[in-house]
Structures are given as C-alpha cells and as structure tokens.
Amino acid sequence: MPPPTQGRSSAQQPADEAYISSLVMAICLYGAVSRQVVIIGGGIVGAALAAYLCEHEGVDVTVIERGPNNRLVGSTGLAPGFVGLLGETPVMTGLARASADCYERLEHDSLSGFDRVGGLEVASTPAGMADLERRAALAHDAGLPAHVCDTAQAMECEPVLVGPDSCVGGVLYPDDGTARAEVVTAALKDSASSAGTHFVFDAAVTAIDVRGDQVRAVRVGEEAFVADDIVIACGIWGPAVAALAGRLLALTPVAHPYVYGAVHGRSAARSPFVRWPEHHVYARDHGDRLGLGTYDHAPLAVAIDQLGAVAGQPWPAALFDPAVARALDLLPPDQRFAPERRVSGVFSMTADNLPLLGPIEEVRGLWAAEALWVTHAAGAARALAQMMTGTSPGIPGLEALRPGRFTGQRADDLNDRALRMYRDIYATA
Ligand SMILES: Cc1cc2nc3c(=O)[nH]c(=O)nc-3n(C[C@H](O)[C@H](O)[C@H](O)COP(=O)(O)OP(=O)(O)OC[C@H]3O[C@@H](n4cnc5c(N)ncnc54)[C@H](O)[C@@H]3O)c2cc1C
Fold first, then answer.
1. Is domain 33-80+182-250+352-406 classified as CATH 3.30.420.40?
2. Fewer CB within 10 A of the terminal residue: the chain, N end or C end?
3. Is 381's C-beta closer than 6 angstroms to any atom of ligand 1?
C-alpha cells in the first residue's frame, strides 16, 4: 500500500479545486464572505450611501476620504442647507422628499438634521407670479402642499426678509426646510460605523485597479483596498477620480457666492427660507445671523486642475461683490447687511442639471453618485444602494440619471451647457 501523499497529486487537483470553489460559494451564500464595497468620498453622499449599504446583508463597506474625520473639506461643509422639495421632474422631487424624510430623523450632538421651516418663493412682477403659480400647480400634481399668498401674507410668513418693494406675492411650500449638512453627515457616519463600515480618513485615492472590465481594488499610495464594487462619491473631484479608472464623468465644477451677516441678536425664528427666482437670489435666517446667496452673475467654472483639496476658493470680488450688492437690495432696507463672512464654494453642475447616479458604463463594479445636492443626497444614496444590491428602487425615473447619458458628446459643449444652467439652477434642460 503506498504511503499517504503529503501534497496533492495532479489527479487530485481538479477535484480539490471544484470542492474549494463549491465551499467558497456555500460560504458566500451563507453570508460568511462579504461583497467588498469601497466608497471614495466621505461627504454627505458617501456617508449616506455607507449607512444605506450597511442595511444589506453580506455587504462589507469601506469609505476612503482624503480629508480628516473632524472637518468636511468638500462642498458639504459649505452648504447653507436650503432644501426645496419640488423639482422640475418627478424623479428629483422623489429624491428630495426621501432625503428630507431621512434628515428629519437624524440628530447629532443634540442638533437636529433638518428643520421643516418651509420655503417661500417670492415674485417681484406679475409675470414672475404667473411662473410661481405654474410651479404651485406642479407641486399639487406631485402631492406637495403649496399655498399661493398675496404680498401681505408673504410678508407675514417671513417679516424679516420680505419687504413690499420686491414682492407682489409668493408661494409657500410648508414641507420644505433647512438641513444641517454637517449634522446629517456626522449622524450618517455614526450610523454606518456602528453597523460595521470602516472609515479611512486622511487618505487620498491615487489609483483604481481594473482587470479586464471588472474593478479589483482602490489604491491609496502603496496600500490596496480590494473591491468588488467601487463608488465614486467625490463631488467636484469626481471627474479626476473617474479618470483613474480611465472613465469620463461629464461634470463641471462651478464657484458660487454665499454670504453671512453679523450676529443679529434676535431670538431664533422658525421662519421659512426665501427665494426670489426672477432675481436668482435666496436667503435665510440661520438663527443667529442672516445668510444670502445669488446666481445673478456670469458663471465661474473652476478647472479640475485648479480645484485643490478643499471646496472653498478665494473670493473673486470683481465678479461676486456687485451680484451680492444687487441681491441685498431685495431685502427690506433695515435688513441689508454688510457681509461678515464670504464663501466662494464650488459645487457640481451637469449639462441637464441632473445628477450622475448609477453604474458607469464599460467597467463592471464601478458606480457614480455625483453632482448631487444636499437636497437629494440621502434619497439618491438609498436608491443607489438598492440598485447595487438588486433591490428595486422605490423611486421611478432613475434611468434619466444614468452617468453614461452624455457619452459621445463633446466635453466643451457639455461644459457650456452646464454653465448656461447655472442661473436657472432649479430648472432642467
Ligand atoms: C456655497 C454652496 C452653497 C450650497 N448650497 C446648497 C443648498 O443650500 N442646498 C443644497 O441642497 N445644496 C447646496 N450646495 C451643494 C451641496 O453642498 C453639494 O452638492 C453636496 O454637499 C455634495 O456632496 P458630496 O458628498 O457629493 O460632495 P463633497 O461634500 O464635496 O464630498 C466629496 C468628498 O470626496 C473627497 N475626495 C475627493 N477626492 C478624493 C480622493 N482622491 N480620495 C479620497 N477622497 C476624495 C473629498 O475630500 C470630499 O470630502 C451648496 C454648495 C456650495 C459650495
């Protein structure tokens, strides 16, 4: 009788391999081996996606973020938090509603993620009022409450920011509100961490490994994170990160002004935020001070190689100061403030003003969650988590957000179209 062999004979090998692969399959089926998902970017989108993916069995999530744990270096850290639920298309309204519902349930350090204070749109001319009434009808069709108001009622809704000189009437959306983006992001990170997500901070992704047509790993310098799926949730840096996998993302980073006044000393009011769509201006009482933003200036694109590692840019005074001055003139004279803090923050725009959400064509396992506002971030993250795990997303119309919808179109044309959308930020092409 021959002695038992130490190694495998060549005859044994195929049988053993078949056994091992059936064992691996069985372990996967019983959930002992997880699907590895790496999310690049830990802003509001990456944090929300991690929190939703963790709810699914057998998914192991790692979030890799270039910035530190205690500071949001991306656009999320600069967003003043206006959340208007009504989009021009049902899919955007659906994402906004799902997001607000999520934020309303979150809190961090005793601060709530969302205040449903309402949003007031104000018209300065009869033509402007007709457009607001068109939007109010759209809201009713979408099942969102919208109340048409005359000048006195609009001023009563927000007596500080709305004056008779710039208001012939308005529409109040009582379900709109204001999000604390940093509170929401911190709460989502906590929730994802306690469900097992691994966060890696101060780590810039430098390479994405693709073998054949399938993603394999994300690299941070010499360190590799093996991945079955990789999600690009990098906001304005999305195109630079997609390029690491040889893919184009049609997204244009644009600088935008938002200014804060001095502490006003009034008690915090739960008043709605205000938008003047004809003037491309919006404002709110942050509780301790007023804040105001404007799109009423020539759009300022920021080249990908000019972005740096934070979303804030130097204030371009010649372009932004006159626009802010015009915007402040919409406030009642006694409320026009001297800006104490000026933010020139960069966010993403696309040629049709819609986000890029879903699988990236031609590379299996590569996904985009890009060009998303705070307004839509959590709803979009939940929808993407559902797509990735084969669950049917509850929001119809998501195919309109396919990242590959601009394939074959010229980059300079896409940038021009994105910049033309800037002033009419609430419209879609
Ligand atoms: C001035 C201003 C006002 C705004 N106002 C509003 C508003 O009122 N309402 C609203 O809904 N939205 C608003 N927005 C838009 C909103 O802030 C953004 O759309 C949103 O925060 C984007 O979130 P994000 O997670 O996609 O991106 P980000 O918050 O930018 O997060 C992306 C993350 O990716 C990380 N990253 C990038 N590259 C790498 C890499 N190579 N490796 C690892 N990590 C990487 C970055 O460090 C960053 O933290 C505003 C934006 C600005 C700038």
1. no
2. N
3. no
